C-alpha cells in the first residue's frame, strides 16, 4: 500500500444521544480507490460526514495528508481538497446546471482553470454540456448523479468521497458511473467510495472496508476480501 | 350597456393614486425584500427589520444634521452602517440562539426590536423631528400626474437597487452561493461555502435594504422611534403575501400593498389597514403559499 492520503483512526460519533460510529478506522492510499461497504444504517454516510467536517467526532482522529483535520469546518476541508458527492445527489434543483457546476468550483479562487475543469466534466458526461441552461431539477436521475459528480470535480479534489453513486440507477448508467470513477482515479484523484453494490465496488477498489453497526470489522485488499466467506454470504449473494 | 361605473371610481385620480401607491409600495418592497432575504439565508423570520431600519435612519439623521454631510454621502454611509449592524446582529445574537423551536428566534428578534426602540429613544429622544429633504425642486409632470422629486428619487433608488441585486444573485459567485445556501445548506457546505459568512451577509444586506426604506420614508412622514411601526407591518405582510421565500414575490407584494394603501387611503382613510389586511387574508386563503411562493407540501 502506498502513502496514505487519508487516515481515519478509531472514530466515534453521535447524533444527539444516538451513537452512530463506535470505532471506525481506515486508510486510503494516495492515488487509490478504497471502498467502504456495509448494510443500511451501518454508518457509512456518517463516516463520510465526519471526514467532510459536517459532523464532529466525539473521539478518534482524521488525518489528511499527514495533518489532523478533525474539527475543521467543511469549507476549509473543501479548500484543502476533500470533496464529497453526498448521498441522494443533493444537487441544487432550482439552479441551472451551469450554476451548479460553478458552485462546485466556488472554493477554488484561482479562477483561470475553471474552463479546464469544466472541459473535463463535459468529456466525462457530454450530456451535461448540452443542458447547461436547464434547471438542474428537471434532469433525470442519472443526469443528476452525473451533475453531482461533475460539480465535485470542479473543485479539483485530491480526495473524492462518493456516497452510493449507483443508487437507484439503471444498470447501464451504473456502468457508466463506474467507468468514470476509474477515469477519475487514472487522472490522479484518490477516491473513497461508499457502496451497497459490493460486486462493482470490489471490482474497482484496491482496498475495501466492511462496516457493521458503527465498527469496521474487516479491511483488506479487495481481491482478498472477495474470497472471504462472510463477504460472499452477506454482500455477494453466494 | 351592462356595466354602470359607480361615481366613486370615476372620480378617483387613478394615475396619481397609482404613482403615489407605487412609490409607497417601492418602500414596502425594499423592506420586504430584506425580510425575505434574511429568511431565505438564515431561516429566521425577523421582527426587528423595522427597528433596525429606524435606528439606521437616526444614524443618517445624525450624519445629515450634526456632520452636515451631503445626502448621497450620508445615504451610502448609512447603508454601510446598516450592513455591518445587521451582520453583527447575526454574529453576536442570531448565530447563538437555538432554532430548535420556531419561537426562539421570534422572541429574540421581537426583543431586539424593543431594545432598539429603547436605545433610539434614549440616544435621540422621543420627540417627533423632521428629516431633511433629500431632494428639493419643482415636481415632474406626466400629463395630469404629478411626480414629486422625492417620489422620483424613490423610483430611481428602488430600480437601481433591484437591478443590482438581480445581477448579484444571477451572476456573481457569492450571489449564487447565497441561493445555494437557501436551497440546501448541507450541499452548499460541501461546495466550500461558509454558512456563517453567508448568514452574516444575508442579515447585513437585508438590514441595509430596510435602512433605505427608512431614509426615504422619513422625509415623507417624520422621524421618531416609532416611525417604522406601520411600514414594517406592511412590509411584513408584503413578504408573506409574496410567498415569504420569493424575492420577486416580496416586490410584487410590496407594490400591491402600496397601491391598495394609496387608493383606499384616498377614498376611505379610516379603512386603510382594514382593507389591506382583509386582502392579505384573502390571498393567503386562496393561495396558501402566497402569490409567488411555492406551496410547501410536508415531506413524510
Ligand atoms: N441525522 C440523524 N439523526 C439521528 N440518527 C441518524 C441520523 N443519520 C443517521 N442516523 C443513524 O445513524 C446510524 C448510521 O447511519 P448512516 O446514515 O451513517 O448509515 P449508512 O451506512 O449510510 O446507511 P444507508 O446505507 O442506509 O445510507 C443509523 O442507525 C442511523 O439511523
Ligand atoms: Mg448512507
Number of helices of chain B: 12
Strand order of the largest sheet of chain A: 6-7-8-3-9-10
Name the average pLDDT of chain A. 92
Give a quick account of the main beta sheet of chain B: strands, pairing sense, barrel closure. 2 strands, antiparallel
Q: Beta-strand level of the residues of chain B, as a percent range? A: under 5%
Poorly predicted regions of chain B are none
Distance between the termini of chain A: 29 Å
- Count all strands of chain B and give the number: 2
CATH class of chain B: Mainly Alpha
Order of helices and strands of chain B: HHHHHEEHHHHHHH
Total of domains of chain B: 1
What does this structure look like?
The complex is a heterodimer of chains A (238) and B (300). Helix content of chain A is 37%, strand content 28%. Chain A contains 10 helices and 10 strands. In chain A, β1 and β2 (18-29) form a beta hairpin. Chain A is α/β, with parallel strands linked by helices and 238 residues long. In chain A, the strands form 2 sheets. Chain A has a 6-stranded mixed sheet with strand order 6-7-8-3-9-10, with helices on both faces. A 4-stranded antiparallel sheet of chain A has the order 2-1-4-5, covered by helices on one side. Chain A is globular. Chain B has a two-stranded antiparallel sheet with strand order 1-2. Chain B has a single domain (6-286), classed as ABC transporter involved in vitamin B12 uptake, BtuC (Orthogonal Bundle). Chain B contains 12 helices and 2 strands; from the N terminus they run αααααββααααααα. The mean pLDDT of chain B is 90. Chain B has 300 residues and is mainly α. In chain B, α2 (14-42) packs across α10 (229-242) and α4 packs antiparallel against α9 (195-217). In chain B, a hairpin with a 2-residue loop joins β1 and β2 (145-147). Chain B is globular and about 60 Å long. Classes of the chains: A alpha/beta (238), B mainly alpha (300). The A-B interface holds A 52, 54, 73-75, 78-79, 83-84, 86, 90-95, 99, 102-104, 106-107, 151, 155 and B 173, 176-177, 179-180, 183-184, 186-194. The complex binds adenosine-5'-triphosphate and magnesium ion. The site of adenosine-5'-triphosphate has 13 residues of chain A, from β2 and α1.
Amino acid at each position: 500500500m502506498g502513502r496514505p492520503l487519508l487516515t481515519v483512526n478509531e472514530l466515534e460519533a453521535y447524533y444527539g444521544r444516538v451513537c452512530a460510529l463506535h470505532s471506525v478506522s481506515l486508510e486510503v492510499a494516495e492515488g487509490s480507490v478504497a471502498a467502504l461497504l456495509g448494510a443500511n444504517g451501518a454508518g457509512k454516510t456518517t463516516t463520510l460526514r465526519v471526514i467532510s467536517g459536517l459532523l464532529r467526532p466525539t473521539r478518534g482522529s482524521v488525518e489528511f495528508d499527514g495533518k489532523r483535520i478533525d474539527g475543521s469546518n467543511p469549507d476549509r476541508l473543501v479548500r484543502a481538497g476533500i470533496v464529497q458527492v453526498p448521498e441522494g445527489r443533493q444537487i441544487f434543483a432550482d439552479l441551472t446546471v451551469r450554476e451548479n457546476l460553478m458552485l462546485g468550483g466556488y472554493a477554488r479562487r484561482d479562477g483561470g482553470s475553471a474552463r479546464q475543469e469544466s472541459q473535463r466534466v463535459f468529456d466525462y458526461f457530454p450530456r451535461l454540456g448540452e443542458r447547461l441552461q436547464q434547471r438542474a431539477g428537471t434532469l433525470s436521475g442519472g443526469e443528476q448523479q452525473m451533475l453531482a459528480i461533475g460539480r465535485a470535480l470542479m473543485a479539483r479534489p485530491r480526495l473524492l468521497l462518493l456516497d452510493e453513486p449507483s443508487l437507484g440507477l439503471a444498470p447501464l448508467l451504473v456502468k457508466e458511473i463506474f467507468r468514470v470513477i476509474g477515469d477519475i482515479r487514472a487522472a490522479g484523484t484518490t477516491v473513497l467510495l461508499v457502496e451497497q453494490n459490493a460486486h462493482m465496488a470490489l471490482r474497482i477498489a484496491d482496498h475495501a472496508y466492511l462496516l457493521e453497526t458503527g465498527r469496521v470489522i474487516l479491511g483488506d485488499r479487495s481481491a482478498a476480501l472477495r474470497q472471504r466467506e462472510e463477504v460472499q454470504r452477506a454482500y455477494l449473494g453466494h | 350597456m351592462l356595466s354602470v361605473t359607480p361615481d366613486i371610481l370615476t372620480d378617483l385620480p387613478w394615475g396619481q393614486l397609482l404613482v403615489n401607491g407605487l412609490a409607497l409600495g417601492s418602500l414596502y418592497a425594499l423592506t420586504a425584500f430584506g425580510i425575505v432575504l434574511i429568511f431565505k439565508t438564515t431561516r429566521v423570520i425577523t421582527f426587528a427589520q423595522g427597528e433596525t431600519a429606524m435606528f439606521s435612519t437616526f444614524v443618517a439623521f445624525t450624519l445629515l444634521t450634526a456632520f452636515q454631510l451631503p445626502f448621497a454621502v450620508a445615504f451610502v454611509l448609512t447603508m454601510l452602517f446598516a450592513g455591518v449592524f445587521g451582520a453583527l446582529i447575526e454574529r453576536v445574537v442570531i448565530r447563538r440562539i437555538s432554532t430548535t423551536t420556531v419561537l426562539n428566534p421570534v422572541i429574540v428578534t421581537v426583543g431586539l426590536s424593543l431594545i432598539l426602540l429603547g436605545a433610539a429613544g434614549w440616544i435621540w429622544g422621543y420627540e417627533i423631528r423632521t428629516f431633511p429633504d433629500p431632494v428639493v425642486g419643482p415636481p415632474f409632470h406626466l400629463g395630469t400626474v404629478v411626480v414629486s422629486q422625492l417620489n422620483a428619487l424613490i423610483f430611481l433608488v428602488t430600480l437601481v437597487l433591484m437591478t443590482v441585486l438581480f445581477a448579484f444573485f444571477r451572476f456573481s459567485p457569492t450571489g449564487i452561493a447565497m441561493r445555494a445556501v437557501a436551497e440546501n445548506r448541507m450541499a452548499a457546505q460541501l461546495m466550500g461555502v461558509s454558512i456563517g459568512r453567508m448568514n452574516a451577509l444575508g442579515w447585513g444586506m437585508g438590514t441595509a435594504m430596510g435602512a433605505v426604506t427608512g431614509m426615504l420614508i422619513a422625509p415623507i412622514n417624520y422621524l421618531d422611534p416609532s416611525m417604522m411601526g406601520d411600514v414594517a407591518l406592511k412590509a411584513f405582510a408584503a413578504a408573506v403575501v409574496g410567498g415569504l421565500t420569493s424575492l420577486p414575490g416580496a416586490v410584487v407584494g410590496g407594490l400591491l400593498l402600496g397601491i391598495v394603501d394609496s387608493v383606499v387611503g384616498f377614498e376611505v382613510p379610516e379603512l386603510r389597514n382594514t382593507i389591506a389586511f382583509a386582502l392579505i387574508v384573502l390571498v393567503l386563503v386562496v393561495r396558501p403559499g402566497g402569490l409567488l411562493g411555492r406551496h410547501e407540501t410536508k415531506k413524510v
